[in-house]
Specification:
heterodimer; A: 333 residues; Rossmann fold; 3 domains; B: 154 residues; alpha/beta; 41% helix
Chain lengths: 333, 154
């Protein structure tokens, strides 16, 4: 068989957008396929887990894993692929930061199951059946993966060598990353394979941002007709550009929509949401606490706004478990 | 016969206090030189201005085991850098909302204006905050890794 480096693609808690992103390479994907052997890619190729298990440890040059870790199966696959790969690449925002599925860390397994299998208006489940890890039918035992209370990013489960950011990563970022990995001239371990500057730096609207920007109202994109060449923050629309890593070429802004932060923070920032919150709150033009609250009330969901892609990798990681609060009260009492 | 189980240790809140160099830190200093007695639960960190308190510092403190965070700055209009305390106020109002969403009670984060001469206020604020946080109990944010194994086995 060929001597080309072997790679795997895998998905965990994700939407499939990262798989689309690979296909989005269009004809450039032929260059990728020309350079590497894809030996495992469940969404596109019929190889199974036992094929991966049969590989020698370290036989894969790299695994590109997208999606956060939400179930026991995902954790097992991440560990297996880590063992078989020289390089583990967190591909896309969910794997890199926890992503949109990471917002589930505002709840826990019980509340998620209750909502999904009982309380949501479209649920019809009179017997109140919820998924069980084991179930017997006609003498056969069926199993499902276990479901964690807390969603984790990939590097909270296995060691990660590099990160390809984005929801989803853009074709340009993916190609540059693949070329870097194949070149053998590897950047320092743990690097995010994208520029280390804030998005504003590459935003085409950069020059329209006023020297001193202060706001007395925040608006959501549907509440205002947006000018196409003016800084969105200057138009009162929340844009995460100042607290987000660049490299996407301001795609959303080119579509006249604000940045929501999918590339994550730059290397100097530990907690993207806190930094974004800090930047936004400082724009409020008022020195009066009640007035400040009134202006900031236009941000109805601070966690979902500032941590849209990064709750599991934030300093707090998840909503404080109710059990911790109860234990606290007991100790205090 | 001595009891085999040791008595449970009394909970002492740990409070990280970020005090501004020009007002609140001097007030804390004055409290010391005036021999005022107050709860020993705060760990004071001097910053140049309450506006220097990045919300990341507050979250870091909570994540590393603080049960409460107190920010002390100059009274409105008195900021050595003119507007730093107003910036602190804006961030504080939004950060407290975010903490509430994350299940962290409001009383665990507090912003107070304390001028250099208000040593009494340092004493009163710290004592009051320690009692309120004591009533809430420990924060206990950490999710130990073993929890992942346990919760699935259940």
């Amino acid at each position: 068989m060929s001597e080309k480096p072997k790679v795997a693609f895998y998905w965990c808690a994700s939407c499939g957008g990262c798989e689309e992103a690979v296909v989005d390479l269009a004809e450039k994907i032929l260059d990728v396929v020309g350079a590497v052997d894809i030996v495992f890619w469940p969404v596109a190729l019929d190889f199974k887990r036992h094929d991966v298990e049969a590989l020698a440890d370290g036989a894969l040059l790299a695994t590109f894993l997208n999606g956060a870790i939400r179930t026991t199966e995902q954790e097992e696959m991440a560990r297996l692929l880590r063992k078989k790969s020289k390089l583990m690449i967190a591909f896309g925002a969910c794997s890199h930061l926890g992503g949109i599925p990471g917002l589930a860390n505002l709840w826990d397994r019980e509340t998620i199951f209750q909502t999904a299998y009982r309380d949501s208006p479209s649920t019809v489940n009179p017997e109140g059946i919820t998924p069980q890890p084991r179930h017997r039918v006609d003498g056969f035992e069926l199993t499902l993966p276990g479901f964690f209370d807390t969603v984790r990013a990939l590097d909270q489960v296995v060691e990660v060598d590099y990160y390809i950011p984005g929801c989803a990563p853009t074709p340009k970022i993916i190609l540059a990353a693949v070329q870097t990995l194949l070149s053998g001239q590897l950047p320092p371990r743990g690097a995010v394979l994208a520029p280390d500057r804030a998005l504003c730096d590459e935003c085409p609207r950069k020059d329209s941002r006023p020297e001193k920007l202060m706001l007395t109202a925040f608006k959501r994109p549907h509440e205002v007709i947006l000018e196409e060449d003016k800084c969105l923050l200057a138009q009162g629309v929340l844009c995460m550009g100042p607290a987000t890593r660049g490299g996407c070429e301001a795609l959303c802004l080119q579509g006249n929509m604000p940045c929501t932060g999918c590339f994550g923070p730059t290397s100097r920032v530990r907690d993207q949401g806190a930094k974004a919150l800090s930047a936004v709150a400082s724009l409020v033009e008022s020195d009066d606490a009640d007035e400040i609250d009134r202006i900031l009330a236009a941000i109805p969901d601070p966690v979902g706004t500032f941590y849209r892609y990064s709750l599991p990798t934030s300093r707090l990681r998840r909503k404080r478990p109710a059990a911790a609060a109860r234990a606290g009260e007991k100790i205090a009492a | 016969m001595p009891d085999a189980t040791p008595a449970p240790r009394k909970f002492e809140p740990r409070i990280v206090a970020f005090f501004c160099n020009w007002c609140t830190y001097l007030a804390a200093d004055l409290a010391g030189t005036s021999r005022l007695k107050y709860a020993p639960n705060t760990r004071v960190i001097r910053v140049m201005c309450s506006g220097r308190v990045d919300p990341q510092f507050v979250l870091e403190a909570f994540a590393r085991g603080a049960d409460g965070v107190l920010i002390g700055g100059c009274h409105p209009g008195d900021c050595h850098y003119q507007v730093g305390n107003y910036k602190a106020l804006r961030r504080f109002r939004l950060l407290r909302r975010l903490l509430r969403e994350m299940g962290i009670e409001e009383e665990r984060l507090r912003l107070e204006w304390i001028s250099a001469s208000e040593a009494d206020k340092v004493k009163a604020v710290v004592n009051d905050m320690v009692e309120k946080v004591r009533a809430l109990g420990p924060l206990r944010l950490k999710v130990p890794e073993e929890v992942f194994a346990e919760e699935v086995a259940a």
